Amino acid sequence: MTKKKVSGTQKRLIPAYIFLIIMAFLSVFPFYWMISAATNETLAVARGKLTFGTYTIENYKNLLAQTDLWGAMKNSFVYATAQTIMAILVCSLAGFGFELYHDKAKDRLFGILLLAMMIPGVATMIPLFKMISKAGLLNTVWGFMLPAVSTPFLIMMFRQNSRNFPTEIMEAARIDGQSEPGIFFRMYFPIMRSTYAAAAVITFMNAWNSYMWPRIVMTRNQAQTMPMLIANLSNGYKVDYGMLMMGVLFCSVPTMVIFFVLQKQFAEGVAGAVK
Amino acid sequence: MKSGNNGMSVKRKQEAAGWAFLTPATLLIFIMSFYPILQALFTSFQTGAGVKMAWADPWYNNYIRMFKDKLFLRSVGNTFLYLLIQVPIMLILAILLAQILNNKDLKFRGFFRTCIFLPCATALVSYALIFKSLFATEGLINHILVSLGILQQNYNFLGNPTSAKAVIIIALLWRWTGYNMVFYLAGLQNIEYSIYEAAKIDGANGWKSFWHITVPLLRPTIIMTVIMSINGTLQLYDESVNLTAGGPANSTITMSHYIYNNSFGTGVANFGYAAAMSFFVFILVAILALINMKVGDTRD
Amino acid sequence: MKKSLVAMALIGAAAVVMAMPAMAEEHKLSVYAWDPNFNIPALEGAAADYKENVDPDFELEILTQSGSSDVETAVTLAGNAGDYSELPDIVLFQDHYIQNFVATYPDAWVAIEGADIDWSDFGEEKLSYSIIDGQHYGVPVDNGTAIFAYRVDLLEEAGYTIDDMTGCTWEKFIEVGEAVKEATGKYLLCMDGSGNDLMYMMMQAEGGSQWKDGEPYITENETLKKVMEVIIEMGQKDILYLGNDWTDYTNNTIQGDMVAGVMNGNWIIPTIASVPENSGKWELTSLPTLEGGEGYAANGGSSLYITSNCDNVDLAKDFLAKTFGGSKQTYDYALTNGGVITCCLSAGESEVYGEGIEFWNNQPIYADIVAMSGKVPIIEQNDYHYQLRTLLGAAVVNCINGSDLDSELAGAEEQIRFQMGL
User: Fold this and answer.
1) B30 is in which domain, residue-wise?
2) In chain A, what are the domains?
3) What predicted TM-score, i.e. pTM, was given to this entire model?
4) A131 in Cβ contact with A124 (< 8 Å)
5) Is B231 close to A101, i.e. CB distance below 8 A?
6) What is the pLDDT of residues A163-218, one digit of tens each?
7) C81 and A47: CB-CB below 8 Å?
8) What are chain C's domains?
9) Who's near C215: CB < 8 A, 6+ residues apart?
10) Is ipTM > 0.90 here?
11) Chain B nearest C-alpha distance from A42 (Å)
12) How far apart are CA C323 and CA C53, in angstroms?
């Protein structure tokens, strides 16, 4: 009886499966193309060869010979990690403060901060560059991340999620003599784990993938990031597509791995934000 | 709040702590967003660059100029076209996907969700390169369409104004649908699954429960994603630059791309004019976000 | 509490300035360049040359950028911030920018006066870009002389030879183009549609300019109109392929074997030559003209400029003078390793330049190009070169799709005058 019911349900779901398979295929296909291109030589890629080739090692060797691949990987990793840690710390503190100590003044301030979300990047780029340049922060991790550490979006995310934070615990902790920062670090931090995971995934991806700003402030070779490295490869008078796709592959793997690892927490964290 | 003997000082301490917590973030936003935008406001009343920098005459000249600038107006038109076509398709697709994936009878849910979200993990630079090579005249899409007999001969997708816009829209859909889906999926998880079960017993079919349960309950999430999408689309830059370079014949150029071009890349910088146009974008985003929130609120 | 203090301190640290003091070094220079297959090997060769023959302790730090536009952006940003301290000692960028850069950011540059360079040995047209108020600001690296490269095997299939093409009229070119398309399915001409330099090169081959007395010269310009008509006709007859952007042009169009002809600055040669199976099938010659006769033009090409951030101007000048300013060793190395062709006229006499190149059907292309570079006419230039290029490029695309040329040209003139504030 139950078996029949299950198979009946599954039968009704066939259109849904077909739709999902098509969407999943479309989503994943460009990745397949990227990986297969990384194994082919440039002419085969330019002519749309779909199958795997035998040029993987050559493409990797050429990439190593022409660029400082591992240097750029390391830079991207260091900058993105630093930005992630700073951003989730600063923004979660703010979200915590805005929601759990909220009063009229703070709500109004939050409204003002939200305005910053609407400021187009192109508008602030030049004044920001002047500032970072005058402070001597060009080519440093600070120059890379400072403009992106505090974002209204993350603050909002933490603020929304904080609504699920049981206030009774705070009261109890205060009675136990816990200090306010103590509450934040000992109670809020562990309870909000999944929000932190979601925020970390989003920030890390944004930081790793950012291109316009790093291109302006990271002027030295030694400070180059992965997206910059790829862009450099794609703009010469002569472009080796196989090698380029190998670079694109290297640039994509870390963010994909992070997403795979933190997927579950990510979904939970986002769920809290839209409640 | 329970208060002891020194209730006032505890309260004050808490008050101070609350402000202290949000100070670093607030300061950073003021220094890194509000101060530069103020500077940009001053710049927007000037013209030229370097030693040729001077006050505009009249001071609001840049703001008049942009409405006479056919190229800028075209970039506004293009951006709105992306907004009006891409955002609705993307959001509807994302809600549909979320609704389907929320069905507990469905197998391999995690697998599908991961696949569909995966595009978000790619860098903008990378995905523009991937799409460019896929849609090239000798590229893979052409090979497939020709061998299936859909096209007679290879078609230059990025060389025709209409198809180039379509490629940008397809690329945007690919990159962002999964991202929005995750928000809806999260929103749906906050809806008690039993509501659907009850609806099913009442005889509501999939579509009915979609329109009458899912959409209304997801409203806050929808408002948030719409605002995010409007904001993202009006500031669209990377796709226009990396995928089509704004071409052919400026037919795909976006506002941010045109603003950038007025600062860099053509040898003659006009920072004042660029700043004035950025302010226009800022005001547009703010107005649209406000309308959105109002519409979302008054439907109760 | 301790933990929280540490965290607070961490946030505070965000405000700490971590400036690294720039060290002045006596034997070291830094330079911005951008193409690992082109100008970067040329600079490496120059550094090795200087180290070997002048200063054994010399060191050149090459800072790789993604393109000339990155260097131009860096200069613009630094100029606007009024802070040149992050610029390297020397920068390399495209010739069209320097006039405006010197006018807008005069304190960013150091004129190359007093350097030991025989300027008369360089093509006049090339130098005309970087001479401002009678002072030299740039030392030329690559020569932008335009070439027209043809696939002789494909021409032959259609019943023509490269001699038919040398000095032919554009009318005749279109005839051949149609025959080639019919016989082989390939385009006889191609260009990057997002940066369409055809009008500019074809105008220069006629000795004409899109500018007159500092103002745009478009609707009244009969030559420009004829040139545009030719381009549009070629586009409509499917003889001309306009790539969507730079990589589409180089990778898909040229390397993807869609074409039987390429016309551009000679820096396009490495792109053509990167398809080994086409070896021996290409040859090159000068440009067609409207009335017939060989046309000479230049497109692109870049020069090295010394910035005001350079602590050791004498070393920079000496380095430039003894390498790109006249050293056969540098020129030969740049040519063999990067395909960079100098505009130093006497360099064309060297053995390396005179060699027949197998890929080019044993034509001594480098000597031929240096010879051509001396014949390029000087025409009026303008700071708004790239803006006008964009507008005319858009007009071409629109006309190929059916718009009216006169109204497109009028629109372009109106827009460029608007942008120039005229």
Assistant:
1) 2-43
2) 8-56 (no CATH), 60-271 (1.10.3720.10)
3) 0.85
4) no
5) no
6) 878 888 888 888 888 888 888 888 888 888 888 988 998 899 999 988 889 988 88
7) no
8) 30-144+300-349 (3.40.190.10), 146-297+377-420 (3.40.190.10)
9) C417, C420, C422
10) no
11) 11
12) 10
